[in-house]
Each structure stands twice: as C-alpha cells, then as structure tokens.
C-alpha cells in the first residue's frame, strides 16, 4: 500500500456533512464486529438566502455560492474526465469582496461528476445541464458547514453526507478495507456484503424523502457495488506478510467469481465516473501483477496479462482502459520498464488516445528505468553533514523515500531493520530519505525509534515531494524504494519492499553479484 499525496485512491474526499444521513446510518444495523464511535454533531450553519434563476433545461450548469470568512481569493471547479478519469477542464472564479462567486461550466452537456476545490479542501459534485446550484461554507470549517440550495441540491447534499459518513466509518475502522488485514477471505466477504447492504439502505431511505434524479440513484447504486468489488479484490494485498506465510490469507477457489458476474464489459458508460475508474485501477494492481507483486515478466507475460484481463473484462473498451491504466501507472509511479509488454499492447489495444498517452509517459520516464544512471542529490543527515548519493558509488544502495506521517512506510521499518542486520558487513547501504515537511518530526522519530546500524544513513528533505531528491526520482507516492548498483546505475525502480522476504533478500543478493 502506498500513500499518494493529493489523492489517488478508491475513496475520493468530498467535503460536507448533514445530520440526517448520520442519524440514518446510526439507526441502521451496524456492520458485524465493528466498534462504533458516534461522530460529533455537525456545526449548524445558515447559508445566505438564495433564489433559483430558473435556468432552462439543457443550458450549461452554473455553480454559485458564498464563502464565509474566506482565506483565499479564488475557487475552482474541474470537470470533463479523460479516458482514465482525470478531469481536464477547470474554471476559476475570484471571490467578491463579500465572499460570493459564480462558476459557469461551458461545454457541460451531459450529467456527470465535477470537483470543487478551495485551497486544500475539495468536494465532489454531481451536475446536470440546466442546474443552478448554490453552495455556501465557512472557510475554516469546510466539511462541517458545506450546504446546498437550488436545483441539484438534493443529490449534492447526499454526496456530501455520504462522504462524511465514509470518513467516519474509516476512522472508526468499520469499513471492510480497515478490517481486512485480520480477517479470512470468507469473513471479509461477509463483512463487505453487510456494509454494501447498509449503504444501499441509506441511499434508499434518503431517496424516499429527498427527490433525486433516477440516473443519479442508479449511478450511486453502481458506485456502492464498485467499491464493494474493490474491497474484495484488494483483500490479499492488505494481508500482512506474516499472515501470508502462515496460510491465514488463503483465497478460496471461486473467490473472484463475482467479477465476471458483474459484467463490467457492458459498462462503458461508467468510465467517466471515479468509482468505476478506481475499481479498474484496483483490478489491475491486484490481478495483473506478477507473483512478486510487480510487473509480470517472461516471454509470455503480455499474452498472459491480456488473457486475464479479457476473461474478466471482455475485449472492449473497459479492458483497454483497465490495462492502459495499469501500464501507465506502472510507468508513472514505479518507473517500470514496460517495453517487453508493448508488442501485446499494440496487438490488443483499440484506443489510439491510450497508446499516445503511454508513449508520452515512456519518453518522460525513460531516464528512470533500469540500467540508467541514478540521478544524484545532496541532502543533510541528522548531524547537519551534507551527504550525496554519489558518495556510495562502489556499493549497492537500497534507497527508501518515506515520512513519519506515512503509516505504510512506518509499517515497513521493522522489516527494513531486519534486512539491514542480515546484510551487515556487506557492500550494501540503506539510504533513508524523509519527506517530512517538518524537520522536527523527522528528528524526533530518528532519535526515538530509528535503530542505528553502520549500514544505515538517514537524510531529510523538508521540501518533501517538491524537493530535489523526490523530483529527481519522480516520487509521487510513498513508500518508494529503489535499488542502485555498485556502478551507480538503477537496478530496480520498484524493488521488493523490505517485508517481502525472501524476494527482497534475493534482489539484494543479485545486485551484489559482480
């Protein structure tokens, strides 16, 4: 699991709360085995009065609103997803002296998703042509105060409330994903089924008292199903290494039969929705990877990859997007060398836009593929001494980008220590680069929890993802691991994690060979 800044995951953060849905969720049966903590009641916030303008159906939607106690001068709205769901158009408006704004969306001709952004806050919206949606919030209390009026208010209030409920469920560890690491596959399926039914009941109850577009209700029902499927697909990837070794994470025969039963190959129209794109991304990284969790290798790797994808997703656009997403993410986030798979990609892919995007990514990331010189950087260690990557030429370097706020990073630290101890006295350096923006957080962790060994070096870059080291290595998510050979060239851009033993041991042994 990786932490990705600025969002990259199945749960998209959408601001907003409301007492109705939280009360309804509390009244419904809770997921079995979950410990429930009641959320605090939202802060009351009265939106400024608003009168709808009566825009004609079919006209471009307009989102207007008011920001109370503004902390920034502009607000923006993004829409028009591309083939992998990235929003390609953004309109921006300046706030008036009283905090008001107006955002027309030219070219928005079909009902769909949009994303409102204000500083670091964001909310996912559902808009239809002709909507004249008004929203208001307190800049200091975005989630608690976001409120909607006007045409489209009911759908967007539902989205805001369910996002708040999802965040609460996640924090209270009520979701299938937060409990998967300790469950059997059968128990997870039972939990996921119950959680899905609970969410569908909430949607049904809300729709009974708040008129919603029929298309919106269908899409939300599908989104709940997509997130259910994502939880089931990611079961094994969420299992600790110890449970895998001891056989507690075995996936029974027929576990993945739900996937072809969903007939995803018939759902091309859902490709513009974030929940479906997230499911396809989860599918790729849980079903298309090789046994070691990395890009599949071997002379038949491409053929096997496409056979798997075709069996589950058919041979149409949904499969092309899923495979394209998978390969593109491998290049952009892991800098993997996908060139051995390109012949099969060209033979099966039907979409020239996907092919063009992949070619552009390959050109941009060519310098970070295996065999290329590792980019040099210089940072300071805990004593203030400047240390460069090139200082370790002649030794194998296991490079680890991490941060104290990154739970998956910290979960790898005990295994990283064990790896250091095993390779003590050999020509291997474990180089840790902290991307904490606060130097004090890094220093406190190193002083209290880092076990020093002669083959470990701790460095820090307060510029985090915008720092020279992270930019040089194209780091967009953490933990990010790199294996560098004695000659200063990249051996692996995404080596096995420290906990992935014996694969991590074998990778280091191979790099040490003359």
From TrEMBL:
CDD domains: TlpA_like_family (cd02966). Residues 503-514 have a biased composition (Basic and acidic residues). Pfam families: Redoxin (PF08534). Residues 495-514 are annotated as: Disordered. SUPFAM superfamilies: Thioredoxin-like (SSF52833). PROSITE patterns: THIOREDOXIN_2. GO terms for molecular function: oxidoreductase activity. Residues 368-514 form the Thioredoxin domain. PANTHER family: PROTEIN DIPZ, THIOL:DISULFIDE INTERCHANGE PROTEIN DSBE. This is Redoxin domain-containing protein. The lineage of its organism: Bacteria, Pseudomonadati, Bacteroidota, Cytophagia, Cytophagales.
């Amino acid at each position: 699991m990786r932490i990705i800044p600025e969002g990259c995951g199945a749960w998209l953060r959408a601001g907003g709360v409301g007492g109705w849905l939280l009360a309804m969720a509390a009244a419904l049966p809770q997921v079995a085995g979950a410990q429930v903590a009641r959320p605090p009641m939202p802060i009351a916030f009265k939106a400024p009065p608003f009168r709808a303008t009566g825009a004609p159906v079919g006209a471009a939607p307009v989102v207007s609103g008011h920001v109370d106690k503004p902390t920034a001068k502009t607000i923006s709205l993004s829409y028009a997803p591309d083939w992998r769901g990235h929003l390609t158009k953004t309109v921006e408006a300046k706030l008036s002296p009283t905090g008001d704004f107006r955002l027309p969306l030219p070219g928005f001709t079909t009902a769909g998703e949009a994303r409102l952004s204000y500083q670091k806050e964001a909310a996912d919206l559902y808009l239809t042509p002709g909507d004249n949606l008004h929203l208001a919030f307190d800049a200091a209390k975005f989630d608690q105060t976001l409120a909607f009026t006007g045409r489209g208010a009911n759908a967007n209030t539902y989205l805001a409330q369910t996002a708040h409920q999802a965040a609460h469920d996640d924090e209270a560890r009520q979701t299938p994903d937060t409990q998967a690491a300790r469950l059997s596959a059968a128990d997870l399926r039972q939990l996921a089924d119950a959680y899905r039914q609970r969410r569908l009941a909430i949607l049904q109850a809300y729709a009974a008292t708040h008129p919603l577009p029929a298309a919106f209700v269908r899409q939300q029902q599908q989104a709940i199903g997509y997130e259910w499927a994502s939880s089931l697909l990611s079961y094994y990837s969420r299992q600790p290494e110890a449970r895998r070794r001891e056989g507690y994470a075995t996936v029974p025969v027929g576990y993945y039969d739900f996937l072809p039963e969903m007939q995803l190959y018939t759902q091309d129209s859902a490709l513009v929705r974030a929940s479906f794109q997230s499911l396809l991304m989860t599918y790729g990284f849980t079903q298309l990877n090789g046994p070691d969790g990395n890009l599949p290798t071997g002379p038949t790797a491409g053929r096997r990859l496409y056979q798997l994808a075709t069996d589950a997703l058919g041979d149409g656009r949904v499969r092309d997007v899923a495979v394209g997403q998978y390969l593109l993410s491998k290049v952009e986030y892991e800098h993997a060398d996908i060139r051995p798979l390109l012949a099969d990609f060209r033979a099966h892919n039907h979409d020239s836009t996907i092919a063009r995007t992949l070619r552009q990514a390959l050109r941009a990331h060519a310098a970070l593929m295996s065999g290329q010189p590792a980019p040099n950087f210089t940072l300071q260690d805990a004593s203030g001494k400047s240390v460069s990557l090139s200082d370790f030429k002649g030794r194998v370097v296991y490079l680890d980008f991490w941060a104290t706020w990154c739970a998956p990073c910290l979960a790898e630290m005990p295994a990283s220590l064990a790896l250091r101890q095993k390779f003590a006295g050999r020509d291997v350096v474990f180089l840790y680069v902290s991307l904490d923006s606060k130097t004090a957080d890094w220093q406190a962790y190193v002083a209290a929890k880092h076990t020093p060994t002669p083959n470990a070096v701790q460095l820090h870059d307060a510029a985090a993802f915008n720092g020279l080291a992270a930019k040089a290595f194209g780091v967009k998510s953490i933990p990010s691991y790199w294996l560098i050979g004695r000659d200063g060239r990249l051996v692996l851009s995404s080596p096995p994690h420290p906990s992935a033993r014996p694969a991590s041991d074998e990778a280091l042994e191979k790099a040490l060979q003359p």
